[in-house]
Amino acid sequence: MLFFIKKNIDIIIIILLLSFFSLALIGYPEYNKQKNNIESKNITPFLITSLNRYNVLDTVYTEKKIIIEVLLDKQRVVLHKKNSGTDTLLCSTGTDLVKDGIKTNRGIFIVKNKFPTLISKQFNNTECLNWIGFNYGIGFHALKSKGYYWSLGKRPTSHGCIRLSQESAKKLYNEVEIETPIIIHKSDNARIIKFLPENSTYDANYTIKEIKHILKEKLNLLYSGKYYTRKYPTIVLTHKYIGHDGIDIGDRNKVPEVQEIPPLINLNSAIPFLPDQTQTFISIPDSLK
After folding, report:
1. What is the pTM of this model?
2. pLDDT, tens digit, 9 for 90 and up, residues 22-62
3. Mean pLDDT, residues 257-261
4. Are residue 79 and residue 8 in the same domain, yes or no?
5. How many domains are contained in the chain?
6. 118 and 172 co-located in one domain
7. Which domain holds residue 79?
8. Within a domain: residue 269?
9. Looking at the structure, do residues 20 and 94 belong to the same domain, yes or no?
10. Quick one: 23 and 80 in the same domain?
11. Is residue 53, in this structure, part of any structural domain at all?
12. Does residue 122 lie within any of the structural domains?
């Protein structure tokens, strides 16, 4: 008997420690409070059964009513409306295969300016209809002629801007406002935009230098699987923090599937108890696929 105990002493110690941890957690009042809230709402908890979170992306927020998503790989513009679903528009983005052309930049931007008509002196005084600018000389617009319509939804053909049909450009122009957020990607983004929940508060006293540092650090922690080891402020997209150059959307290929949750966390401080509701992007009608 003594020989059996000595031989298996490590296993016995581990079992005792696990039993103690389980009893301590059950007696933790904040844990039980959160657990009861979850069970009463029929929501599957994640901390009860796991100390990991899966397929996490970084999030920034907007107070505007629309999020514009540009899908470079699908040549689509999707308007995500806070209270009324989505609209999808065909587009043609920038390419470096035309003279003086550039690829439309990936990133997160905000609408900087709007003009019913903008004259492009760089390109032979071309009239850009319903101009919506966001990235220096890059913006959404239509053209007076319709010769480019064949490329909409099919391939990049512009010098860098996002071309729309005259009808789509007018619709977009009428619906968006200054500071409306824009995310441009190839389904490879590690950062998303979400609507700021009602009655949420946030600290707007950070400097742009501080915000840039925080955004960079959040991506680095996301890549390392340590995203939840730090608590960060809610970042809302405004002129104060987002210039014409926008912010980095990161690289989803660098994000591990699993993010660690620190053990024995304070459920009211380090991270939210329930997983974030990830913004559902890419809502394209079958007729436009």
Report:
1. 0.75
2. 444 444 444 344 444 434 444 334 343 345 778 899 999 99
3. 87
4. no
5. 2
6. yes
7. 71-179
8. no
9. no
10. no
11. no
12. yes
Name residues whose C-beta falls within 8 Å of residue 177's C-beta, 6 or more positions apart in sequence: 64, 111
Residue scoring higher pLDDT (83 or 285): 83
Does residue 10 belong to any structural domain of this protein?
A: yes
% the chain with pLDDT above 90? 58
What is the maximum alpha-carbon separation in the chain?
Answer: 95
Same domain? 11 vs 108 = no
